[in-house]
Specification:
Number of helices: 3
Distance between the termini: 26 Å
Strand order of the largest sheet: 4-3-2-5-6-7
Radius of gyration: 16 Å
Mean pLDDT: 91
Number of strands: 9
Low-confidence stretches: none
Helix content: 10-25%
Order of helices and strands: EHEHEEEHEEEE
Bound molecules: inosinic acid, magnesium ion
Shape: globular
């Protein structure tokens, strides 16, 4: 952990630096590549919006000739940091999933509701395999039906921003993951 240089209101500390993330993503890419038979094609599905930056680095670290990228959008009802609502599938994938090796890429697992919902949706399409890679895992839930095979880092319980993660749609562009102070009313 290091001090934040300057400039981001409310940002308390850097939790995972740009360098730590880059090095871990390279490891994850190599592990994922080794897990699947070399001749098999992967369908990597990113959960928007949070996973967009992680996915774009991760696929570049998976060295294999055939790989497809697609996205789906899920959203928790409610705004800000209130994750008490239901998960809604806003946009489904374009690519056919049936018979494919699907790797679902998630930014952060908290309550697990998003993963449970999206996992069910993808499993109902009969993929050949379904695995999850999450950059961050808060290890805050016991009700996870799709435990990620690959996790970048165990995360603290703080609200985290950067490297794709947001607070009220802000801070996604930060090249590191930081902890931010969250207003009590959570209505951001
Ligand atoms: P879950 O459904 O409770 O596991 O929450 C997963 C989703 O909530 C993630 O994909 C994020 O979009 C969001 N989320 C959970 N915790 C954080 C956080 O600390 N910072 C930013 N987004 C978060
Ligand atoms: Mg989010």
């Amino acid at each position: 952990m290091s001090e934040v240089a300057t400039g981001y209101p409310g940002l308390q500390r850097v939790v995972f630096s740009e360098e730590e993330i880059a090095s871990r993503v390279r490891q994850l890419g190599a592990e994922i590549d080794a897990f699947y038979p070399p001749e098999d094609e992967l369908l990597v599905i990113g959960l928007l919006k949070g996973a967009y930056m992680f996915l774009s680095d991760l696929v570049r670290a998976i060295e294999r000739p055939t790989l497809k990228v697609d996205f789906l959008t899920a959203a928790l009802y409610g705004e800000g940091t209130d994750a008490s609502g239901e998960v809604k599938l806003v946009r489904d994938v374009d690519a056919p999933v049936t018979g494919r090796h699907v790797l679902l890429v998630e930014d952060i697992v908290d309550s697990g509701k998003t993963l449970n919902r999206v996992g069910d949706v993808l499993l109902s399409k009969s993929p050949r395999s379904l695995e999850v890679c999450a950059l961050l895992h808060k290890k805050a839930t016991t009700g996870l039906r799709y435990e990620p095979r690959w996790v970048g880092f165990d995360a603290p319980s703080d609200w985290l921003v950067g490297y794709g993660l947001d607070l009220g749609e802000r801070y996604r562009h930060l090249p590191f993951v930081g902890a931010i102070a969250v207003e009590e009313d959570r209505g951001i």
